[in-house]
## 1
Amino acid sequence: MQRAVSPADSRPCLDHEVEWQFVVDDPAEAERVLRREAAADGLSLEALGEQRLVDRYLDTDGWAFHRAGFALRLRQGTGPALAELKALTGGDDAPEEHAPLRRREISERLSAAYPLAPLAGLRAGSGPVSRRVRDVAGNATPRPLFTLRTVRRRFALRSACATLAEVAIDDTSILHAGGEAAAGLRRLEVEVGSASTAEQVAPFARRLRENAGLRPAEGSKFEAGLTAVGLHPETAPDLGPTDYDHASSLSEVARAALRRQLAACLAEEPGTRLGDDIEALHRMRVASRRMRAVTRSFAEALTPELLALREEWRWIADALGEVRDLDVQIEALGEADAALAPLREQLQAARSDARVELLAALNSPRYEALTEGMAQALRGPAPSEGAGAQPARLAVPRLLRRARKRLRRTVRHLDGDAPAREYHRARIRAKRVRYATECVANLYGEPARELIAALKHVQDVLGRSQDASIAIARLQGIACADRDTPPGTLFAMGRLAEREARVLATRDEAFRVAWARFRKCWKRFDRALGDAACSGESR
């Protein structure tokens, strides 16, 4: 439905759409049903008039908005165009029977200076939709997917003293991007403004379904439009096989792992660009770091083209890491302590600056060359000779034992007096062992899964201490550099620093426990490595 937007052209409406949707065959009969069921519930319908709406849905050639979890819509009716990003789903959980669909919706009224060219207005806008469109699309230009032309009859569903919902009966034509008719769509929508109002309207919506026999709509209008014009959003690119078995060569195993991580990186890129879900950025960063780790651990089995890209993944991982570190620190502050508001604002400003740098990197020819070069190198066949052609079961034990030896050598230097960089180095080497083990976990079963869990515990302990060291350094830097920080904020920052210092004080004991678990799991895994290698040699 048309959401309420402030008269100010670029003022945002970040809200959730809460509505029931039903399929109708005859709009006139639907109105009669509405009035009958409203009266049965002691409610009334007030006619609000008719609207004629033109909705254009857009996306990039690579379906960036769809992959970010949103549909991009430009709506024209009376007055300036409205740009909207509508979430494709309402969340992870399916709604209960009779419950309304609740989806996130971000709206922006575009400048009246672009009445006939709303896409140009979107590019020139300064509101939340315009900004997100530029961030997600990058160098790509959104293209029309299809158009909906709707005649909407609007009603207010009222109780004795208040308006409970807006009801609309839509008669919609779905058109191809070129204007050719594709299909028709008729729906009845009941939209409420809050969860409390939804509880009041729910009995009415139930009557429409059970008494009047209206069928709940399956899927959104966006999904119906895609089906009608025969469009199928792009899924993960085909990079080649991502599985392996006991007969796979070392190169096949390594390339399968790299394909999985490149696909994960590309899948998380739109959400990272959107910037609303910090976990999308985290997952993209992890995928980029895993590619570096796999390339390092299996270097002897990979082509020069793949090896040459390893340091490029360090570059993009560092750009992602700048934002991720700030996300962690902002999240650690929480929202409860008002005294930390100035610090929160500083960190948010630093995050905004880091995002500018990250988006510049993602929009650069260098990043495009990296992803395209990696994809091209992975689509080719695995080497049929050399170190990479040897069976993985025979080569993997040597590689993993070598990585574990490096980790153990680093851990020997850890004690209460070791500098933070030594703990950080141990964390990096623990990650390398873990990521390399994950690449071949299917070959070794439960011992590999146990080792991976133990290594994750080691990483978590060392990672938390690294976060604490970074937080303390940042707090000290702010306290020394900003003479205008309010005393209350300085006091709260001091409490934060004490909390992080306690993490560092308990680090060595926590690490000792995690390391003992790793050593125990490694012994079992090492036996599995030997058993598998002997089995491979006997065959």
Note: Residues 441-481 form the longest helix (41 residues).
## 2
Amino acid sequence: MTIQEIKKAYNRITGFLDTRELKNAFDSLQSLIVGSREYLFQDKIEEFQETYKYMLRYRSEGAKDPMQEQIYTHLLISTYEIADWIRNRLLTPEAPSTYYSQRRIQQSKPDISFEKLYTDLYTNYDIGNEVQYEWTLGQLFNKIWTSDIFTTEDYVSVKKVLDDDILPNTAGSQVVSALMLGLQFTFDKEKMKLLLDAAALSNEEIRIRALISVLIILYLYKKRIPLYKEIENRLDNLAEKPGFTNDVRTITLRFILARETEKITRRLQDEIIPEMMKLSPKISRKINLSNINPEQLGDEMNPEWQNIISDSSLGKKMEEFSELQQEGADVMHSTFIHLKSFPFFREINNWFLPFTADHSIFSNTFRQGSNEKRMLDSMTGAGFMCNSDKYSLYFGMMQLPEQHRKMMMGQFDSQASEMLQQNQEELITKRGKFEIIAGQYIQDLYRFYKLYPAHLDFEDIFSLPLDFHNLDTLSPYISDEESLTTIAEYHLRKNYFQDALVIYNRLAETNKDNEVLFQKIGYCKQMLGDIKGALAAYLHADLLDSKSEWVIRKIAGCYRTLKMPEEALTYYHRYEQLNPDNLSVQISIGHCHLELKEYNEALKYCFKVDYLDPKGTKAWRPIAWCSFLTGKYDQAKNYYHKILENNPNMQDYLNAGHTEWALQNIQGAIHYYSQAMRSDTGDFYKFQEQFMQDIPDLVVAGIEETEVPLMLDLLRYTLSNTLQ
């Protein structure tokens, strides 16, 4: 069998198991065994089949077996495990992916037990052999993430590393990431138990990483986890710890925020940086660097320089990005995206390594106590930089010649260092230590799944919804109204309307009298294009609170979109009573009358808007068209003249042409029709299609329908310059 055939067969088997189609899973597993000639489990599968048939036969006879659920669960778990084992056995010898390549490397080496690796790790750290400690930690990482199912002995040995309070948190953190990465490829109950153990530790760095990893694995195996009562019991115990619900909620929000990273990166590359480049010459001219004498410089900066930035659209965007950074958004991704090619990042474990300036790879490049070392320490202490980016920063600085590096670092004085320290303290106060650590680790994960050279060998968890609040396993702990509302509001604020809608609908099941909830359901549906659904929700909200101006206007807008102008008018008039001087509503009322062919009534409202807002242009188009339809052609012509001087579109030129034709000004009509065609695509047939839709209105204006083809031919000749 080919690699693709093996993967497809495995996915088919686990798919059947996920939907509890056990017979189909057995049949597919038999086919995989025959196709691969791996007959080691043939007898076991046949034994499972017989047990299952016996159980079903017993059930069909109406008998109740108290052991049935236990037997069924055991069959499902065992079948999953056999499928995992066969897949790994078949793919390990030849699959080119990183995971199986590393498994082959591990199998080619003399086997070193987890106990021995732990001992070596402890010894090397104790004697201060940093290089050997880091090497051993890398070996431990690779062995964990590519290992087969853990034995009880493996579990005990790896747990010693997690429980060791003397080892630095780099050890426990690397173990957690290796467990998570290994579980992503092959589920292992013992590895999952270790993650849950780590999520209960007192060490914040390890605990938070472990909790994030637990949530990811619960999501990836949402159909499989419920089979393991022991895991659910451990999760129950973990959930009893103070702050568990808040922690899960915070992690969920951080993953929602991670979805913004690509948008932020694109905006930086497509908007911010190009705008800065355009602004740069302007700033240079204002500052006139060539004429500056350092000895004449005072303490004050020219406020005009700042005004150049603040008055530009760049200033507003920079302010927006500053707010995003304060919120914890990943604004640094684009900065360091090209600094991940250093040899350090070829080792997979280094993508998950907590940052330490004492790493042996830096050797003595940055002398202790030096200005550059102090400055780098201040920068890497900043909460808005993840561990991976901090390593990138150091490596980037190492590439510079020492003289240039010192000169660059010399630009940062003690005041700048204090500002960074203050920024870090403000972040901790505002967001809390938990959120900062969680945010940094999620950003580390993001960089790995997006930028690791062989990242395509790994399922990108950031391409998944990761809606932890919707998991049956987690629902008991994060289904409280506060959590769901917070998550929904965050989705809404980030314009993830479908995700928000799912939660709002869930909340509405028990909050049928909450008008604000139905307002938000309506808004989400409207933004998703479900206008009828939005209208139903808005109408329900209106029943609960008939004084909401926002809802009344939304209902009117939905009716207009659904081409129900009469119903829309009812609600616009309700809104008009509350806000009689709202010009936008007045023009909407005019449009409704226009759609109802009540042209004189439409003109009344449009003229009112034009009178109250003489500098505005909103009323011009409906006034011009209604004037045409009511035979007031001179009035229509005057308004189209004004319209055509203010960013006209194809329809404006077309309507102006109709008006000239109605006034018997054929040359004027031809002129505007030509403009109409050229202002759009220049496609005559597209213009003609639009033109033909207006024939009934032209007939009402006194134009014979037989004249239409003559006018169109006249236009064709004119456009081809062949009319003599």
Note: The radius of gyration is 35 Å.
